[in-house]
Write a structure and sequence with these properties.
two-stranded antiparallel sheet, Rossmann fold, 7-stranded mixed beta sheet, alpha/beta, 21% strand
Length: 197
């Protein structure tokens, strides 16, 4: 299994990135190959000018095509997803997420922002034709403690439980995905098949 993680925060330090780090570590411990991207990886000029031919955008498109699933995390700003993340998602082709499982994660100042996942992020992912979009996890900022020199980042127990349950569902959905048949193998099977009318 191969999964991409995409951190939508333009900030160097982000609570949504902490959620993504926990998710990445959990997936790797469960045998999933993970490749991580952050919107900060992409030159602002490429995003603002919608440079579909940017080398980093082309690399992302190639990796999205290869991936079985995506975990996308965003902070909620003014009841919506991070603008840089939206711009980056706009550079993906219309069917970029078809045959993919997607787990959305979001953080915000209070539960009042919880619906941003359903009304701001999920419609964009649906427009990209995500095959299976999981419920997702919303976390209040107060439920996430940044790492310090002495301690690793920490999640409130209730949030950690919800995130682990979502990751279990995501992993299960990845395992259920039908594997595409190699066109050469399919052709060979068709040629060797016995046909009757």
């Amino acid at each position: 299994m191969y999964v991409l993680t995409l951190a939508g925060s333009p900030s160097q330090r982000s609570r949504s990135a902490v959620l993504l780090d926990v998710a990445r570590d959990w997936l790797q411990r469960h045998g999933v190959e993970v490749r991580s991207y952050q919107v900060r990886d992409f030159p602002a000029e490429d995003l603002l000018h919608a440079r579909f031919d940017s080398p980093l955008v082309l690399e992302l498109l190639e990796q999205v095509a290869r991936a079985d699933g995506l975990v996308i995390a965003t902070p909620v700003y003014k009841a919506s997803i991070a603008g840089a993340l939206k711009v980056l998602l706009d550079l993906l082709p219309e069917r970029a997420l078809s045959h993919k499982v997607v787990l959305p994660l979001a953080t915000g100042g209070s539960n009042a922002h919880m619906l941003a996942v359903d009304y701001a992020l999920k419609p964009v992912l649906a427009a990209l034709k995500a095959q299976e979009m999981l419920q997702g996890v919303f976390a209040e900022d107060s439920q996430i403690a940044y790492a310090s020199a002495e301690t690793p980042a920490q999640l409130a127990p209730a949030l950690e439980q919800r995130l682990l349950e979502a990751l279990e569902q995501f992993h299960g959905a990845l395992a259920r995905r039908p594997r595409p048949i190699d066109p050469e193998l399919l052709n060979e099977r068709l040629l060797k098949a016995r046909w009757s009318i």
